[in-house]
Specification:
monooxygenase; 3 domains; MOase; 5-stranded mixed beta sheet; 9 helices; 11 strands; oxidoreductase; alpha+beta
């Protein structure tokens, strides 16, 4: 079970706000917020470690190189030369940067560095080997504090203090969480217009996931959007590469084949970039606005939030998650 408490670094306190959403919420939301456009959705929380292990197990042995941080990138004709922290280099016809918020690849492309949102998130993970018995519901609670501690014991005590007015069941979830499963991190985002107008692709070098669209976690779509990117880019590259190669003379076959493959990769990545640019812009913008509405201490925003904005943010969150990026064809 995963839990999270966000803190807004502000000196003006405001009451702890609570929001509870059932996985099948059409009837409740329609009655409370008159949101007729919402249909049944399902939201599941997956432990990142388990997901990564499952994906890694599907790859050939040795396909993943660990402790291989990218230091610099250079071009050698059509080839990309990636220099790693261990001193080794990799040559490739294309480079897809999946190196996170502080992406070296994004920096090479000229994208601006992500900016601090003014908020931090305290996260925890607690295991129930014999099942927890809770209903499949999502609870979000927002707090405020002037400092973001890194000490796990202080973080846990802070959350317990903030959760003093919640149910005993929720309090027990935090209380059960071990210190090694609690962390705190600043929430960053890339300015959405930078994704819309900046270079997300150049000479067969592009970015996906947090390297492309780092966002605040208010949509719960960080990992999901990275998987979306991966499926879309794989489809685009496959469609581009499976097209038949035109006939050519034997003496120029090898040279022409390399050049044509480079062009095909370029077209595939261009299709990916075109399709994901607006989606990335929407992700970042919707996440930030959703968080702002939920956490704002403004009397006007608080009034509107209680009347209808809370329902709108829920609707936006679910609509953003309801995205079909298609299926990969395995051959």
């Amino acid at each position: 079970m995963h839990w999270e408490l966000e803190t807004l670094l502000d000196k003006v306190p405001y009451p702890l706000l609570g929001l509870k959403v059932s996985l099948r919420i059409q009837e409740h939301l329609s009655r409370r917020y008159h949101l007729w456009m919402i249909t049944d959705y399902e939201s599941r929380c997956v432990r990142r470690k388990d997901l990564l292990e499952k994906l890694a197990n599907e790859l050939p042995q040795g396909a993943i190189r660990y402790s291989s941080k990218v230091v610099s990138i250079e071009e050698s004709g059509p080839m990309k030369v990636v220099h790693l922290a261990d001193g080794s280099t990799i040559r490739a016809k294309a480079l897809i940067g999946c190196d996170g918020v502080n992406s070296v690849v994004a920096n090479w492309l000229g994208l601006q560095k992500p900016v601090y949102s003014g908020r931090s998130a305290i996260r925890g993970f607690v295991e129930y080997p014999d099942k927890h018995g809770y209903q499949p519901k999502f609870h979000a609670f927002f707090g405020v504090d002037g400092n973001a501690e890194q000490d796990s014991l202080k973080l846990k005590q802070f959350v317990l203090n903030k959760a003093s007015n919640v149910s005993k069941e929720l309090f027990a979830v935090v209380e059960r969480t071990t210190l090694d499963c609690i962390s705190c991190a600043q929430l960053k985002l890339r300015l959405p217009w930078n994704v819309l107008l900046g270079n997300i692709l150049k000479n067969n070098i592009c970015v996906v996931g947090d390297a492309l669209h780092p966002m605040t976690p208010d949509l719960g779509q960080g990992g999901c959007s990275a998987l979306e990117d991966s499926v879309v880019i794989a489809k685009c590259l496959r469609e581009a590469l499976v097209k038949p190669i035109t006939d050519r003379g034997v003496e120029q076959e090898d040279e022409d084949e390399d050049e044509e493959e480079f062009i095909k990769i370029k077209k595939g990545l261009e299709k990916y970039a075109k399709g994901r640019r607006w989606r990335s812009f929407t992700f970042i913008s919707a996440a930030y606005l959703s968080g702002f509405i939920q956490e704002s201490g403004s009397k006007v925003i608080s009034f509107l939030r209680e009347r209808f904005l809370a329902g709108v943010t829920i609707a936006v969150t679910l609509r953003m998650a309801n995205y079909d990026c298609g299926k990969l064809t395995v051959s």
